[in-house]
Amino acid sequence: MKNESRIRPSDTTKNVRYEIRGSLARRALELERLGYEIVSLNIGNPGAFGFRTPEILRLAMIENLPQAEGYTHQKGIFAAREAVVLQQQERGVKGVGVEEVFIGNGVSELIDLSLRALLNSGDEVLVPAPDYPLWTAAVTLNGGKPVHYPCRPENNFFPDPEEVERLITPRTRAIVVINPNNPTGAVYPREILERLARIAEKHQVVVFSDEIYDGITYDDVKTVSMATLVNDTLCATMSGLSKIYRACGYRVGWVSFSGATHRAGEYLAALELLSSLRLCSNVPAQYAVQSALGGHQSIKELTQPGGRLYESRKAIIDSVAASKYLRLARPDGALYAFVEVKPEAIPHFVDSQFALELLEQRHVLITPGVSFNVPYRNHFRITNLPDSQTLKQVFAKIEAQLDDYAAKGDGAK
Q: Cα–Cα 20 to 30 A to 288, which of 33, 201, 217, 379?
């Protein structure tokens, strides 16, 4: 008789959460296959909502296809890395050269490789809560321990630097800063970033600054790059083509290292070793980097009054203001809103249950707040990528579903 024992997954996956593409998304796909039209607000994927990558990026890829058929250097092509260096220098970042820049298959791959090169089993990494859950997952999968520092709704989702410092232990190796923030849309003030920089330098922890949305801000709010503030420890700045240039499918991201690079030679060599093991990142799309960073920044037209992203964000803000149940810490950047259901309005609200009912009954897919590693259960994230009219219709459905949810009382638990 055959041995039909189950094939079990690695124990390292047990504590990994990525509900953005989890059970709710799978159920939405099932409903679509049954013929239902689902409004999917769970992922910041511009191409799914009709946004196009700037033409100059596509032309750069096409024109360089003959040079893109072989492997490149494990860190990426020179022109792409040089373009990142020039961008950093224009921002006032000192000491960055092409040898301190790595190109990857999106920022996601670079997060994994950068943490793998740094962490030993049990090492701690400070991660914001709420966070983009890949950070928590990548720390866990690479043997580390994510320690979440709260960015509370009542504080506009800004971190408290004193609270962050109290979480540092002898095992702390790094702090993650996501600015502009996913999922909240918060853009951190310079004062807070400066204090975080000094804390990182004092305790000699690496700063991982996720700045993939750094060109997406509203109402003249400005972003400050951590690399301009961090000098006496290592700072890794991460960005890419996915969001600002609406090129998610190109899978091109980069990390540039600045600050105390002279003390990080062994770490950077380990990261290069890991980069070599994957041979190189997607080559054709690397040729779009120079055109993207050096060309017309069309994202500004989308984020100014009258621009599609601006007007969609406004529709979210206005719809929340008109709701009996909702409130919102105003998102100043990125492509999301982290919406709160007022506890006094619906004391028994549970985010994951509501998200499932909204999908099943109204065919709207959102991401429950618990997916972003927070202890409370009364938030959900949506993207502002749909047009403003679609979002107004979505919030009408959300309000109707909240009416039904509120009517169930404590029995909804």
A: 217
Q: Please compute the mean of the pLDDT values over residues 56-67 and round it to a whole number.
A: 93
Roughly what angle, to the nearest 10 degrees, separates helices 106-118 and 265-277? 130
In the chain, what are the helix, strand and coil shares in percent, each to the nearest 5? 45, 15, 40
Q: If you average pLDDT over residues 271-298, what whole number do you get? A: 94
Report d(CA 196, CA 193) in Å as an integer. 5
CB 366 within 8 A of CB 358: yes
Q: How many of the other CB atoms lie within 10 Å of CB of 397? A: 15
Instruction: Tell whether the model's pLDDT for residue 173 goes beyond 60.
Output: yes
Mean pLDDT over each residue of the chain, to the nearest integer: 94
| Structural domains of the chain sorted by starting position, each given as residue range(s) with its CATH number in brackets | 14-43+305-412 (3.90.1150.10), 55-294 (3.40.640.10)
Sheet holding 145-150, edge to edge: 101-104, 253-259, 234-240, 206-210, 172-178, 124-129, 145-150
The answer to whether the beta carbons of residues 388 and 315 sit under 8 Å apart is yes
Q: Are 11 and 140 in contact (CB under 8 A)?
A: no
Distance set, CA 363 to CA 25, 150, 178, 212 (Å): 11, 32, 31, 30
First to last CA, the chain: 46
Q: How confident is the model at residue 257 (pLDDT cuts 50, 70, 90)?
A: very high
Instruction: Give the separation between CA 322 and CA 318, rounded to whole angstroms.
Output: 6
Predicted TM-score (pTM) of this structure: 0.93
Q: Which residues of 86-115 are buried (b: 16+ CB within 10 A; e: fewer)?
A: ebbeeeebeebebebbbbbbbbbbbbbbbb
Question: Rounded mean pLDDT of 61-85?
Answer: 95
- Rg of the chain over Cα atoms, rounded to whole angstroms, equals 22
Query: 8 versus 224: which is more confidently predicted?
Result: 224
Please determine, for residue 2, whether its predicted confidence score (pLDDT) is greater than 90: no
Return the axis-axis angle of helices 308-322 and 388-407, rounded to nearest 10°: 20
Beta bridge partners of 382: 337
Report helix angle 133-141 to 106-118, nearest 10: 40
Helix (H, G, I), strand (E, B) or coil at 301: helix
Each residue's pLDDT tens digit, 83-127: 999 999 999 998 899 999 999 999 999 999 999 999 999 999 999
